[in-house]
User: Fold this.
Amino acid sequence: MTNVTLSVNENDLRKARSLARLNNTSLNEMFREWLKGITQTKDVNIEAKLKSLWEDTDYVVVGRKLTREEMHKR
Assistant:
């Protein structure tokens, strides 16, 4: 693992530590879980958007011109 140094507002840090105590965890573990969550969420969103894009363009056939309706399909 790599160490990370952050600069935070003291009041925010105090609140975060209290929250960690309430959840029986450490601030370090909360940060790791948060970081894991945002990195995984972004990958899922990208995959979902690409899948949606492919599904929305299933009418496109390579090698022929599009009809007016196909070009303006939304």
Remarks:
- The chain has a mean pLDDT of 81.
- Residues 10-71 form one domain.
